[in-house]
Amino acid sequence: MSAGGAGGEAKGGYPPQTIMAIGIVGGLAGIYLGNFMPPAYSFFGGIGAICATVWGADAVRRVASYGLGTGVPSIGMLALGMGILASLFGLSIGGVAGPIVAFVVAAIIGGVIGALANKVIGMGIPIMEQAMVEIAGAGTLVILGLSVVIAGSFDYTSVVQYVVANGYIALIFIIGGMGILHPFNASLGPDEKQDRTLMLAVEKGAIALIIAGFASSLHEGLMAAGLNMFVGIVIWYFAFSKHYALIKRDAYAVVGTGLLPSSEELQ
Amino acid sequence: MIDALFGNIIWMALITIGGVLISWSVHFVPVGGAPAAMAQATGIGTGTVQLAAGAGLTGLVSAGFMMNVTDNLPLILASGAVGAMIMIAVTMIVGTLVYVYGVGVVPSSAKVKVDPITKYRQDLYVSQGTEGHGLPTVSFVSGVIGGGLGGIGGSLVYYSLIEVGMSVGLERAGITNAVTGNPLVAVAAIFAIGIFFVNAVIPSYNIGGTIEGFHDPKFKKWPKAVVSSLIATILCAIVAVVAIAQLGGI
Q1: Residue B20 has what pLDDT?
Q2: Interface touch B193/A84, C-beta < 8 Å
Q3: What sections of chain A are H helices per DSSP?
Q4: Structural domains in chain B (count)
Q5: What pLDDT does residue A8 have?
Q6: pLDDT at residue A65 in the model
Q7: Domain locations in chain A?
Q8: Which of A144, A214, A262, B236 yields a CA-CA distance of 20 to 30 A from A153?
Q9: B234 touches chain A (CB under 8 A)
Q10: Chain B residue at shortest CA distance from A86
Q11: Angle at Cα A46 formed by Cα A43 and Cα A48, nearest 5°?
């Protein structure tokens, strides 16, 4: 599978520092708000997860522009693999500081794997170490944010009981990974634009919030779950409309193909 | 936290060995990616990570099933290996059927002139402009070996994590009727999956594209990936053991 190829640095758009700030500050703020507010406001965790998804998608965009040789999806799976380990570790020893501990541990694991990929395996991507730190951090914040939506808090006992022990963690693994890996994978090509890719990440994050909101009905009740899903649907609608507008902006032309011809017209 | 790490040092070593086995197993599996899906390269038409994860998770399920009835480590490892080998073999049989009867190509390798197992000529059957197609015998055998190694690695990681949980006083087989199941089994399984994904992606960066199996020239690069996986899995093992040991406090 020779996906990609010798690429170069990703060009244009917002600088990485801006997106990184949105991801870290927005992600952590959402996770803490979702934890300390009453259960009905657990959708803040989902909004934090959306911020982290955007950050992760931007990091994937920057590193995958160099050409990984294995396809873009592998890096999203790596992000969530590291994220699961770091997030449960952080919650288990951190207490109130759990998400921050998890984030720091994710950065360490990401940094080590990035350094191994560059130094031992010899991938030769100049931003590999930094990108791996960012991707591991974003994956951790996505998992924590969606766990807060389902469990209502990031207390280790609640997360293990309401998210891990009933298997919702597998759901979070896939929908969170999809938000990080899909935007660049779907938009890559010579006319890839950062704002379009990131708007797709917002849309994917909103879908993740809707699904996590659905799952939260088991523990938080129908009212809180309904509110979670409502917030997700509103964000999804705006993000999808904006993404469609950006597609029309970047397309050469948008034409209607008409309906399928009837059997008489084909003869 | 430090006590938990020193008390479980043997299990951490086994987790690391499991991670290294997973990383090594990925090099055996014939991966073709998008070109293979168009029958322009040998192997299965998807990425390394998906295949390794598929084989590993099947191994995890069959190892978990065996742990229902016994706690004999060799039996559990064998069950995991056989589960993963069946999964990867079935995938390759169906893939070969599609290549031969659906696409209409002869399974043949462009990387070697003669199949090392059957000794049949390969180069005569390779279509022009392609890197071979289908799954030649040597790739099939190599893939089954890879599935076996991955299954052993995955079940070794899972078994070790369960034993870590047992050592801090958590029951194993406490299946309840509630919607939420046994926390130890869930946490051990999800950590095994996390370690599996990390160790499936690292070697796939080493391979970087297609691999046909152990006869492929790229196969010689495996020591690099194994060293990388060794270091990464030690970190993962520390993190996982501490998180599971903390479950004892709940």
Answers
A1: 92
A2: yes
A3: 16-21, 27-36, 43-64, 73-94, 98-115, 128-151, 156-159, 168-187, 194-250, 263-266
A4: 1
A5: 65
A6: 81
A7: 16-248
A8: B236
A9: no
A10: B239
A11: 115
- Angle (CA) B241-B245-B246 rounded to 5° is 120
Question: What parts of chain A have a pLDDT lower than 70?
Answer: 1-12, 69
A3 touches chain B (CB under 8 A): yes
Beta bridge partners of B42: B134
Q: d(Cα A49, Cα A181) in Å, to the nearest integer?
A: 14
Alpha-carbon distance of B132 to B110, in angstroms, equals: 5
Confidence tier at B171 by pLDDT (50, 70, 90) = low
List, in order, residues 6 or more apart from A132 with CB less than 8 Å away.
Answer: A63, A110, A111, A113, A114, A117
The size of chain B, in residues, is 250
Amino acid identity of B10? I
A94 with A32: CB under 8 angstroms? no
Minimum distance, in Å, between the CA of residue A69 and any CA atom of chain B = 4
Inform me whether the C-beta atom of residue B204 falls under 8 Å from chain A C-beta atoms.
yes
Task: Report CA-CA distances (Å) from A261 to A238, A255, B207.
Answer: 34, 17, 48
What pLDDT is stored for residue B179 in this prediction? 56
Q: Is B228 on the interface with A (CB under 8 A)?
A: yes
Burial (CB < 10 A; 0-12, 13-18, 19+), residue A98, is buried
State which amino acid sits at residue B141.
V
Q: In terms of Cα–Cα distance, which of B38, B53, B48 is closest to B210?
A: B48
- Rounded to a whole number, what is the distance in Å from the CA of A215 to chain B's nearest CA? 13
Highest mean pLDDT: which range of A4-13, A257-266, B2-11, B188-197:
B188-197
Å from A259 to nearest chain B CA? Answer: 30
Contact B34 A105 (CB under 8 A): no
Among A2, A85, A121, the residue with its CB nearest the CB of B224 is A121
Residues above pLDDT 70, as percent of chain B: 94
| Length reported for chain A | 267
Q: Which residues, numbered 121 to 180 in chain A, qualify as contacts with chain B under a Cβ-Cβ cut-off of 8 Å? A: 121-123, 156-157, 160-162, 164-167, 169-170, 173
Domain span at B218: 2-247
Residues of B in contact with A93 (CB under 8 A): 1, 242-243, 246
In chain A, what residues touch B41 (CB-CB under 8 Å)? 1
Residues of A in contact with B227 (CB under 8 A): 120
B108-109 β-sheet, strand order: B41-42, B131-134, B108-109
Q: Per residue in A188-205, pLDDT tens?
A: 877 888 889 999 999 999
Q: Is the pLDDT of residue B237 over 50?
A: yes
